[in-house]
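From the shared-data thread, chain only:
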Amino acid sequence: MSGVKKMYENIRTGEYYRWIIDNITIKSDPKSYLLLLKTLHSKEYFWIIPNDDNRAADVRIIRDDFFDVEFDEIPISILEFIIGVAGRCEDILNKEEGGKSQAEWFWELITNLKLDVYDDENYYDLFGPTNIDNILVKLLNRIYDEKGQGGLFPLKKTKKDQRLVEVWYQMSEYMLENYHFND
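Structure, as tokens:
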């Protein structure tokens, strides 16, 4: 097996996959979301807004933390993308300063996307494969409303159409609207 193919398998189902899942698991949650996470990890992240490629760079940092080698040949999954964004949220609102952990941020983003209903028990009853696909198509293609409802960072009010704003600025506006920042 070639080096890239072996690394691809590790990213998709091996130790790396288990490692990223462990990093976003909240032990106190009695529900299992393995089917949802597997679905998110099977879908490729892409961007249509300039500078959203920086979120792919966040994933490369995550991968570099696990692997001791750089590689760009293997596509980034939506799961990795959301984990990367959650990590940036944690960086901005540091847990030591009353913020949330990367895992807590990840699940807030999953809730914002309305994916939290697809736990393993309800996944098939709620037509998870089809409905999750539809949600992800809307997310990646920016087919949500101008306030970000249907995206990662829904807002109550905004002056900018969130469909046209890069993820970084959506995240910043969401934090300003929803979290108190100390001066």
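Residues 41 and 79 are 5 Å apart (CA to CA).
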